[in-house]
Amino acid sequence: MTPILDVRGLSKGFTMHHLGTAVSAFDEISFTLRAGEFLLLRGRNGAGKSTLLRTLYRSYLAAEGEINFHSTHGTIDLARAADVDIAYLRRTEIGFVTQFLTARPRVSAEALVAEPLRLSGVAAEEALERARQWLSAFGVKRDLWPAYPTTFSGGEQQKVNLARALILPQRLLLLDEPTASLDAGARRALITRLAELKAGGTAMIGVFHHPGDVATLIDREIDLTPDMGPQEEREDVAV
Amino acid sequence: MTLASLTRDWEPMAYGFLDASAKREIRRKTLKAIAVPGCQIPYASREVPMARGWGTGGLQVSCTLINPRTRIKVIDQGADDSVNAASIRRFLARVSGAPTTTDTLEADLIQSRHRVPEELLREDQILVLQVPNPEPLRPVQPNMSIARQMHADADYGRMWLQLYEQIVRSGRVMQGASYPSLVNGRHVMTPSPIPRWDVPKLNMSRHLTILSAGREKRLHVVPPFTRVEPLVFDDVPYRVEDHAGLTCTRSGAKGFFMNEIPQADGTSAYELSDSDLGAKTIRQSDGEPVEIGATWYRDGEMAQ
Amino acid sequence: MTPTLDAPRFVTTRPLLRAQGVTKSYGGVQALRDVSATVYPGEVLGIVGESGSGKSTFLRCLNLEETPDSGSYTLDLPDVQGNLFELDRYARRMLCATRIGIVYQNPHLGLLMSHSSSGNVAERLLVAGERRFAVLRDKAGAALDASEFPLDRMDAPPSELSGGMQQRVQLAKAIALEPALLLLDEPTTGLDVSVQALVLDTLKRLQRDRRITMVIVSHDLGVIRTLADRVMVMRRGEVVEAGLADQVFQDPQHAYAQQLVHAKL
Fold it and tell me: Which residue among A110, B104, B146, B248 is the one 20 to 30 A from B218 at the CA level?
């Protein structure tokens, strides 16, 4: 299967200038990921799972190492890529699913979910149709579709978030605790969709509070718990 | 060579009242103004035996241009016989020895307050208009220095904005007289408080028009065959006063700019504003061999 | 470690705006020191920093209101060439009036208070040469509508309007000619919090619907967070950090940037 991601010697640390401290999040991580593979990140709290995902997404800057991404346009090192290339890839090939919805005021749930399709050129009518199907699949009540998600409960917002994030198949999907605050039905819908995308070739890296939920999808695991030294709880860096 | 041969006899007054250096300056400034149509050119406005605000600017230009053969006509709101017009005409005749006339067709130099005669002016005639306020931007920008910079930058957005606001508020442009006009496609001028009726006469005219403000110490010029375009929106056409259908009660002339005379019974009678045209019309209908020239307006419409 | 990023590889569109090496001092004070910025079409660049950081000065340079002591500024637009800092007065004025929109913090700077709101917008169109009254009315109305300004008040003068409404008139004026670039200097500062949210919302929708390129200066990180794709942090005339918005907010590298971000969290 085609290689999607080739991470070599990736290290990340944080330098808190005002405290005069430097902490290491993870060190010398290397792995490859192919199309349709699901990689689970394990490790106890503070081990750097979220940090690794964010570093891959470029929300954090790597200290050392390479993140070679095999895009449809060629191979590029995400750690060093120009901001505008990263912005482009985030729009087209790399998705990041969190437990928080960036709701925009006065944009309806169905418009939010349809947007990735619209941006990729799908006609408005069709995009809206498909968006509604997904809202339904994730169990969002019909009368909420034209409503503004800023008024929804946490669980409902998360369903909209997932529908939007997963509606357009990506090349690489990063998942950061997406099942938090989901009811059983929505969780099932999520797993089903992930399985679908996986079968379609999307490579996935996920952090799950209950890995059991995605047991059927996992191909490999990486445990980030460092083998030596006391661990620092780093609540102040993982946002 | 003797002192006597080098000097002239003492005279109480220079020819044409203004001294030679004053006239030289006005000539030079006038030539400059001709070279930049519509642009206000400052000049050192001299004292003349008339109060500011009564036509001192026009008078200075007339004194400069006059020579013993210049035939002078002076009108005030179209009338040769108004007190001010008569005074100015007498003064000009006295300081120059030049002949005077009331006939537009005969005049070489016409000094006018607030009107352009109805009969077509020729390339050998000069029209001098008296201007109270030469700065069209004043309502929009009272600061003179900034206004000058705006003219230099052709920054007339605020002018247009004023016209826009007038249409929004009143449904039409409220400007009666002194309609701001674009000269030669470059400078916006105020054509002095001539009525809207008269502004099209300046466009591509054969004659030279000098507009002079004595109190404000500036003059500007519309040279012959120069475009003068009142600022109008493409879809809100320029409208002149509604005088096309009016008849002069004294002379019977129709379709020219009229003075309105309210009657005792509440109605209005109308008289030709161009009083000499009125007089000629009456004399002609009395059988005298009077020549009435071609006019800009025919049957109440501006002939193209 | 702040990695030196590679040049763009996948994105082949040219940047819309390139400012390089912009330096300016007033008297003895160095207001800007070698400031550079690149903005791609459709991007929103947020510039943050405290008072005295030079961010507003830089914006005024981008609006050609100020000329720096050195530096270059180019816009990739049809009929626009060369270093814009070297343009003559007239070219500068026309470029500014027709291709760049600006919203000031103080509405008195950007608006003619005694003219009507629609007149304020119409003036831009008039400067650009529009001479049809009906078109002026339509386009002014459309711009005010897009800025979510109530059309039944379009002829009210800004002096009669609230702060939030005045900003909307500024916005309408700025977008009336559909400029390639929109500059905003503290657009919501001084407004009530609830009004700020509404104005931000309007900006967000405009940005989404029209994909207009924006440079926003604000000391309010919340505003920048809502709107910016990329962020530049300035301090005492220098750029201390620049990168993708989420990266600068979540993982600032420079000591001052960290201070700024953490102080507001």
Answer: B104
CB C95 within 8 A of CB C118: no
- H helix and E strand count, chain A: 6, 9
With CB atoms and an 8 Å threshold, state whether C122 touches B164.
yes
pTM value?
A: 0.87
pLDDT tens for each residue of C42-58: 999 999 999 889 999 99
The sheet with strand B218-222 has its strands ordered as: B41-42, B218-222, B208-213, B126-130, B109-113, B72-76
Residue with tokens 């070739």: A201
| Token pair recorded at residue A170 | 């990506």
What is the distance between the alpha carbons of residues C14 and C78, in angstroms, rounded to a whole number?
A: 13
Helix (H, G, I), strand (E, B) or coil at A70: strand
Q: Do B233 and C132 touch (CB under 8 A)?
A: yes
Tokens for C6, please give them: 């590679």
Which residues is A14 bridged to in the sheet?
A23
At residue A229, the pLDDT reads: 36
What the block records as the tokens of B299 is 């049957």
**What contacts C91, CB < 8 A, 6 or more positions away?**
none
**Residues A170-186: pLDDT tens digits?**
999 999 988 877 888 88
Answer for the pair C230, A83: CB distance below 8 angstroms, yes or no.
yes
- CB-nearest to B165 from C115, C132, C135 is C115
pLDDT at A236: 54
pLDDT at C209 over 90: no
Q: Which residues are CB-contacts of A86 (< 8 A; sequence separation ≥ 6)?
A: A58, A78, C244
Calculate the CA dihedral of residues B81, B86, B89, B95 and round it to 10 degrees: 160
Tens-digit pLDDT profile for residues C104-133 = 999 999 999 989 999 999 999 999 999 999
* Whole-number Å distance between alpha carbons of A175 and A166: 11
- What are the per-10-residue average pLDDT scores of chain A (239 residues)? 92 87 89 94 84 95 95 94 94 88 80 88 91 92 91 88 91 91 87 93 92 90 68 47
C173: exposed, middle or buried (Cβ count in 10 Å: 0-12, 13-18, 19+): buried
Grouping H, G, I as helix, E, B as strand and the rest as coil, residue B139 is: coil
Residue C200 backbone class (left: φ over 0; alpha: ψ -120 to 50; beta: rest): alpha
- Indicate if the pLDDT at residue B201 is higher than 70: yes
Question: Do residue C243 and residue A77 have CB atoms under 8 angstroms apart?
Answer: no
Complex ipTM: 0.89
Q: Decide: C120 and B164 in contact? Cβ < 8 Å.
A: no
- Mapped onto helix, strand or coil, the DSSP state of residue B212 is strand
**CA of A239: which chain C residue's CA is closest?**
C250
Torsion angle in degrees (nearest 10) through CA of B282, B284, B289, B290: 70
What are residue B17's DSSP bridge partners? Answer: B14
DSSP state of B59: H
Whats the size of chain B, residue-wise? 304
| Of C128, C124, C168, C118, residue with least CA distance to B168 | C118
Count other C-beta atoms under 10 Å from residue B287's C-beta: 7
- Helix H segments across B153-251? 157-170, 199-202
d(CA C186, CA C49): 11
- Is chain A adjacent to chain B, meaning 3+ CB pairs within 8 angstroms? no
Average pLDDT, chain C: 93
Average pLDDT of chain B, as a whole number: 95
CB contact under 8 A, C244 and A87: yes
Rounded to whole angstroms, the Cα distance separating B32 from B204 reads: 19
Any CB–CB contact under 8 A between A54 and chain C?
yes
